[in-house]
Here is the input.
Amino acid sequence: MGSINAWQKLISEQRAEFLQHARAKLADIESSLNLLEESLWESAQIQNVARLFHQLAGSGGFFDLHEFCAVAGKAEGVSLQLLSKRSDLKKEDLVILRQCAANLSKMLESNELTIAAEQAHFAAEYAAEQRLSTDLLLVSGDPRALVKISKYLEEFNIEVRTYRTESSAEQAAQSKMPDAVIIHVPLSEGSGYDLAQKIRKRAGGQKIPILLLSGEGGFLSKVNAIRAGVDNFFEAPFDLKQVGERLQHLLDRDKPEMFRILSVEDDAYQGGLIKSTLEAAGYNTMLISDPRDFEDALLAFCPDLLLLDIDLGAVNGFELAKYVRQNDRFAALPIIFLTTHNQLAAHIETARAGGDDHLVKPVSPQYLIATIAGRLERYRSLRKLTMLDGLTQCMTYSNFMDTAAKQVERSRGITRSTLMIFDVDNIGQINQQFGFAQGDRVIQALARVIQNTLRQTEMICRAAGDEIVVLLENLDDTEVAQIGSHILYDFQSIELLSGGQKYSATASAGACALDSLSLDDALKAAQAGLQIAKQQGKNRLVKAVQKQPNI
Here is the structure.
């Protein structure tokens, strides 16, 4: 439910459920008032009436029913005043309580008519909506492959446009840029690799997923695919399930991040409202009611934000927040308290416990979502600073080492991993002649060439200064050498400009296959290869000679 209409529809449905819920509460109130009229004093019944009016006042505020809440709050106050006096209940008091209940019932009737109209509107609107599908361009010179791949993709609500030649597919992409492209080579006419390059150069073509399925095989096919800007290369015989999974991953990569929210709320009705509201706003939400489950949920769910009530029984929300803040892993995790406590002491305790916001129930869904969105945006920005290098938008070195180490262990013995290190030649002279700002632009240019060439890998980081480190998988030494040389050639071909003066720069690179080496040892070996490349005249790639680890 990402659209505004879907959000409005959910709020309407929740309000309708609340009206039914409120009707049941008013029926209970009526029963208690009838019993009171017979006895004129019954402490338990008056307490029940006060509790029911309190619940109506609290829940109604979630839907901005302010007048409804005011009347329910007034009735709750009258009931509590009667309890505090502990005097005989007078018939005038019953009249006031009955009048409040009657007013609440009239308000429910008015809202029920509004909700009925809203529900009819949304039903008609959703009946008219058609499910949107992914528009995919499928190009193949093999008619049987076109049919087979199309049938598989259409099962996943993907609208497939099929073409057999480079020119017809290019024209189709020019008429309407697709959401994704699959090219099965060879084509009936033209080159699939040229087609990929042409699509990449068109407006919007840089972002769409392009997969290449090769019936030709061989080393050059893979290298040409990478040069053409293909996201993934599959050699025959290829598994359509793997192709589909990779396509879905690429389609999802640019979708807004689905943040995880852990809500701790002991009131089942309030918790249900909160969970459905957050999920409608696009958040992955876990709800727990027992604080004893909190530690397991925190570690297993790894939330991006905590939403805590204060009164949770044996353990309160402040204690949970303090526990979280003792863990460095969650030091920056946003914590929002959602509670009925509005005393100054509660606000102060929120700050002491490490809370970021203190929201007082009842709170409207719009305000709750706006507060959460603001905190998550700051959290996302902070997390991005720790994960991505500000200059190149590559991974930071620490993030790369953590992620790459896990990836290498998962793939060891299954696929081959290779480390490459690129370093700008004569960066000191560039800084001295043109200034450090221009030196930064040169580093950015090198990073862009690497990112545009190696679209199949996200393992690219800026290690230090002008060094860019890359982790490659499933490439042999010859393919690594070809790709590395291609990057160096493209980089030196860039025309750089400073103060009207044109110049170019070169880079050197070192490479090392991990095989049985650790990530740290492979990194040292690749750096040694880089130094040899510098000594041999620069603007070249040198593969490091592996040293066997000590046993």
The chain has a mean pLDDT of 85. The chain has four domains: 4-128, 134-252, 260-382, 397-543.
